[in-house]
Design brief:
Elements lengths: L3 E6 L15 H16 L4 H6 L2 E2 L2 E8 L8 E11 L4 E8 L5 E9 L2 E2 L8 H4 L1 H14 L1
Antiparallel strand pairs: 1-4, 2-7, 3-6, 4-5, 5-6
Amino acid sequence: MFLSEKEIEVRYAETDQMGVVYHANYVIWLEIGRTQLIKDLGFSYAGLEQDGYLSPVTNVNVNYKTPVKYGETVVIRTWIEKHSKLRTTYGYEIIHEDGTVASNATSEHVIVKKDNFRPVSLKRVHAAWDAKYVEIAKENA
């Protein structure tokens, strides 16, 4: 299974009055994990945008297990859960330093043309990137 990992040091600004990471910040961490996975595979999301494409989120689901607090370091693990012609589902775990799961999540994305938001297959836009996603999604099946 191809698994990307990215370490995050929890910043004070990410917490609420209780010193616990505010729930919406987890979605930002998912983006960090997703970007790291793409980079680890040798591709560039910024390059995709430069080519005139975007990958908007169509669904996100976050399950909060145990709180993350200021001063902690967590690891975001990211993988390809599913990949089809038009949709990619990423899987995530946010892990405490002691190995316990703080959160697990999924996000679904499509590729669209930047100028008209019409969906287009990743295979048509970047065949090598699509082939890699197909390969590692099968490993995770």
